[in-house]
Write a structure and sequence with these properties.
Blueprint lengths: L10 H12 L13 H12 L3 H7 L1 E2 L16 H5 L5 E3 L4 H14 L7 E4 L12 H5 L4 H17 L4 E2 L23 H16 L12 E5 L18 H8 L1 H8 L4 E4 L3 E2 L2 E2 L4 H11 L5 E3 L8 H4 L5 H11 L4 E2 L3 H11 L5 H17 L15 H6 L3 H14 L1 E5 L12 E5 L6 H5 L14 H8 L5 E5 L12 H10 L2 E7 L20 H9 L5 E6 L15 E4 L7 H9 L63 E3 L3 E2 L3 E2 L6 E9 L5 E11 L10 E10 L4 E8 L1 H4 L1 E2 L5 E2 L3 E10 L2 E9 L3
Parallel strand pairs: 1-10, 2-3, 3-4, 5-6, 6-9, 12-13, 12-14, 14-15, 15-16, 19-27
Antiparallel strand pairs: 7-8, 11-16, 17-20, 18-20, 20-23, 21-22, 21-26, 24-25, 26-27
Bound molecules: beta-D-glucopyranose (BGC).
């Protein structure tokens, strides 16, 4: 199957030819919303502004109740009057934002409206599953809808701008922020980044329920050394372009109006000072004309990074790099006016950033209607909050996010006529675990816990025997006896195990991926009763739960599932919903395997049982515990061999079609996520063993077959060559199709040289 190396033309010719013939168009796209009217309006306004007012537009203080660093600020109405605040972080509520907006519009010299930014990450008051959970749905339509609902609620609370989607690729589950993104894969991450941007921004930014989307954190934040948040990312240019940049490009192409800089440095340059990546790549090469916001005190942190000696220098570096908005540091507004007046900071740099802030406000329609959906009595806000429809949407999203990892002997689904059900574990009634760590506007009292979900679904005929067994993270085993006794009385057992929500998300990193405390021992003690036991996991990262495998017959990964989590879990446990989600991230056997991801390189010595001197471990397999894309259903699916439309493709016509027939071979209707991966078998630089290039959710009745077709084009076959040119090289490509990255069938085709 490998390409015949001697038939390939000499390299310089090949690269040149391919680059000319096949390189994707590099021309910048015209900005989506910029119009001559916008420019004229902003020009006229800027002509009236003083240096202080300009720098004021770039200043973003933290409001009330959403502060992650040391420099939180409140009570700055006077600054608004003086035009020293352009945007706000973490200030919400229709009544409060209207009040502050009136001060800006009616009491400041130029009446420039404020823009309110907030972390609306996975729902607003109606909290949806954490982003990693949503991503497990492999359902961009549903994910887009979840973002739309979030925007509708958030905008009714006076918010104009969300600091989401988080599009960082995460291949190190020690890093707590793996929970906030789409997992390990750039393709899935790109599809979902675009879906979330579209959902937040809607079809017209001027509509009152649109919010600006922010793709964050630019860039390679997920590559933090040691899985320690904020730490150094020292990655190659290839890894940057192949792995970490694609979701940002997808967000930009979907019209994202904002991007947030990341806390990390890349190879010695902190992202808040990274002119080559912000100005040259994002703005010039990609043609993106949106608003770049710093992360929380990110400009100030150029000092501890060691690239700025003082605040003035930090501000100058940030502005020069193209960081438009200074979140919380207050450096631009306090330290830069004198620098600009003395000519040490170019006015042109200030103007470019001010223009982008004013453009954003213009695009939202704030100059015409500064009050948008905010109301002085909060009536609209109340009407749009936690509506039955939003709750139903959150429940459906949660149902689609639950991954069935194991189901030995078809223990699941349980029967609703079960007489006695034991409910065990520290998370069975944990309200915050429904919300996760970063649901800023979420309220515990809104959440349905698993016990509440079970009680609502099961009639009087079922007796629940409840025993906590152990705390989440303690060594105390004194509750085991009661838990085992509960299991012994029961016909079936459901255990709710996992992490505290504060064990993932920002600054919540772990060096162990094991179930915390004595939870694994608890599960094994309960399983030893021989009863049918189901472990439901609530957690924000891949866990090394191999100890449960083969002992606990059914394992359902529920993540932190949102306000409707208890209902959604119950829906799946009792078969009202057939699970369909797949893992968006690899689960390792233990933390020592990290980093482990499906799209790895083959190496010169790929792992082999027979050969000692190959790439593997002595103490654990080289394969993961659960592969990317894994997820079971209550039915089973058969894949026929995939078929390609053409055995060869000419470089001038890189259009391929791959079809596969999938059959539901079980007794229930089910949805299968059909996944397609591509490998470039031999290339001028090494390629991953597989790369996701397509997926489709397919619903099949028992016995039904459907033929699923994927279209592949230039981008699906392309790679960066050794000069970082985007090319498709001649040779064979293998296409893998299946229901998981480690269970696929394959077919090959060839791209010819001419
Ligand atoms: C986080 C961002 C967040 C910001 C504002 C920072 O600590 O890194 O993701 O948007 O705070 O809350």
């Amino acid at each position: 199957m490998n390409r015949e190396v001697p038939t390939v033309p000499p390299r310089p010719l090949l690269v040149g030819m391919i680059a000319v013939l096949l390189a994707a168009p590099a021309a910048a796209k015209p900005p989506v919303y910029a119009t001559p009217a916008e420019k004229a309006f902003v020009d006229a306004l800027m002509a009236k502004m003083t240096v202080e007012e300009k720098l004021g537009q770039l200043n973003q203080p933290a409001g009330v109740g959403n502060n992650t660093g040391p420099a939180a600020m409140t009570g700055n109405e006077d600054q608004i009057r003086k035009g020293e605040i352009g945007t706000y972080l973490g200030t919400q509520g229709a009544v409060l934002t209207c009040r502050l907006q009136r001060i800006a519009v009616e009491q400041s010299r130029l009446g420039i409206p404020l823009m309110f930014g907030y972390d609306v990450i996975h729902g607003h008051r109606t909290v949806f599953p954490v982003p990693l959970g949503e991503s497990a749905s492999f359902d961009p339509v549903e994910v887009q809808h979840a973002a739309r609902v979030a925007a509708i609620e958030a905008s009714a609370h006076g918010i104009h701008w969300t600091y989401a989607p988080m599009v960082d690729i995460a291949r190190d589950p020690r890093w707590g922020r793996v929970v906030e993104g789409a997992g390990e894969d750039p393709y899935l991450g790109s599809v979902l980044a675009a879906a979330r941007v579209r959902g937040f921004q809607g079809d017209d930014l001027r509509k009152p329920d649109a919010v600006l989307a922010t793709a964050k954190h630019f860039v390679a934040y997920g590559a933090a050394e040691g899985g320690r948040d904020y730490d150094v990312a020292d990655i190659s240019e290839r890894t940057l372009h192949e792995v970490y940049l694609p979701p940002f490009k997808a967000a930009v192409d979907a019209g994202a109006q904002s991007i947030m800089a990341a806390f990390n440095e890349i190879a010695g340059v902190p992202m808040h000072a990274h002119r080559p990546l912000i100005e040259d790549l994002l703005r010039k090469e990609w043609g993106w004309d949106g608003l770049l916001v710093s992360d929380y005190t990110g400009v100030m942190e150029l000092m501890p990074h060691g690239v700025a000696a003082d605040r003035k220098q930090a501000g100058a570096l940030g502005l020069r790099a193209g960081v438009d908005v200074d979140m919380v540091s207050q450096i631009y507004v306090k330290d830069l006016p004198a620098e600009v007046k003395a000519g040490r900071v170019p006015m042109a740099q200030v103007d470019a950033s001010v223009r982008r802030v004013l453009n954003a406000k213009y695009r939202l329609g704030l100059f015409e209607n500064p009050y948008r959906s905010c109301t002085d009595d909060g009536a609209h806000e109340r009407a749009m909050t936690l509506t039955p429809q939003h709750r139903a949407d959150a429940r459906r999203m949660a149902q689609k996010s639950l991954v069935l990892l194991e189901n030995d002997n078809d223990v699941l689904p349980l029967s609703k006529s079960v007489r006695t059900l034991a409910v065990i574990g520290p998370l069975a009634d944990h309200r915050r675990a429904m919300l996760g760590n970063w649901a800023v506007a979420g309220r515990e009292e809104d959440a349905v816990t698993p016990i509440e979900g079970l009680k609502a679904a099961l009639g009087d005929g079922t007796r629940l025997v409840i025993a906590k067994g152990a705390d989440i993270d303690s060594q105390d085993t004194s509750g085991f006896a009661q838990a085992v006794a509960a299991a012994k009385q029961a016909d079936a057992v459901v255990m709710f195990l996992g992490e505290h929500p504060d064990m993932s998300a920002e600054a919540n990193n772990r060096t162990s991926l094991d179930l915390p405390g004595v939870q694994e021992q608890l599960a094994l003690a309960v399983a030893a009763t021989g009863k049918p036991v189901v472990a439901v996991l609530l957690n924000g990262r891949p866990l090394s739960i191999g100890g449960l495998k083969g002992k606990v017959p059914a394992i359902l990964e529920a993540w932190f599932p949102g306000v409707e989590g208890g209902h959604a879990i119950t829906d799946v446990l009792f078969g009202d919903v057939n699970p369909s989600a797949k893992l968006p991230v690899t689960f390792p056997h233990n933390v020592g395997q990290v980093p482990i991801y499906y799209a790895h390189k083959n190496t010169g010595r790929p792992p082999s049982e027979q050969e000692k001197y190959t790439s593997k471990y002595l103490d654990v397999p080289w394969t993961p515990l659960y592969a990317f894309g894994h997820g079971l259903s209550y039915t089973t699916f058969r894949y026929d061999a995939p078929v390609v439309a053409k055995k060869t493709l000419a470089p001038s016509a890189l259009q391929q079609q791959v079809s596969v027939r999938v059959t539901n071979t079980g007794k229930r209707e089910g949805v299968e996520v059909v996944q397609l991966y591509v490998r470039d078998d031999v290339a001028t630089v090494t390629r991953p063993v597989k790369q996701l290039r397509g997926f489709q959710r397919v619903s099949l009745a028992p016995g039904e077959s459907k033929t699923v077709t994927f279209d592949l084009g230039f981008e699906d076959l392309a790679m960066y060559d050794d000069r970082m040119q985007r090319v498709v090289e001649p040779g064979t490509f293998t296409v893998y199709v299946g229901g998981s990255s480690d269970r696929t069938r394959e077919v090959a085709f060839e791209v010819t040289a001419q």
